[in-house]
Design a protein that fits this description.
With 135 residues, the protein is α+β, with helices and mostly antiparallel strands. Helix content is 39%, strand content 12%.
Length: 135
């Protein structure tokens, strides 16, 4: 006795891309429009304010300690997660890091770059470095 698995509902041809896409990926693509923030990216409340301030100080320490080099935001999130004894759940701290980066960027205490190009605001992948001073 052989079992047949229905492949048609799992994989289907996409007319725009010309390739195949799984039903799971298609569902994910139908979610929110490109560029729209995830609903959990904003951190609120008094406890979160403390977490953002903690993230700000951690970012500034990393930037000062690695002066000519840049820091990835995920490195800061990993440090924060390790400080809370949940090192494998560092992704949960990324919204806090993003908000802290926005605050520090508005104050002019850090600079964001991607592939050595300075960014005026946080969008897509980025690296964190100290402020760029004009000579």
């Amino acid at each position: 006795m052989t079992m047949e698995f229905p492949l048609a509902p799992l994989v289907k041809k996409q007319p725009r891309s010309g390739g195949f896409i799984s039903a799971y990926a298609e569902k994910k693509l139908r979610g929110r429009p490109r560029g729209q923030a995830h609903p959990q990216t904003k951190v609120r409340g008094e406890q979160s304010r403390t977490m953002i301030e903690n993230a700000e100080s951690t970012i500034l320490k990393w930037v000062a300690g690695r002066h000519p080099c840049t820091t990835c935001p995920s490195e800061v999130a990993r440090v924060l997660a390790t400080g809370h004894n949940i090192p494998r759940e560092w992704r949960k701290f990324m919204p806090v890091v993003h908000e802290a980066v926005d605050v520090l960027l508005a104050r002019g205490e850090i600079t964001l770059t991607w592939k050595s190009v300075v960014m005026s605001k946080r969008a897509g992948p980025y690296r964190i470095s100290g402020p760029k001073h004009k000579s």
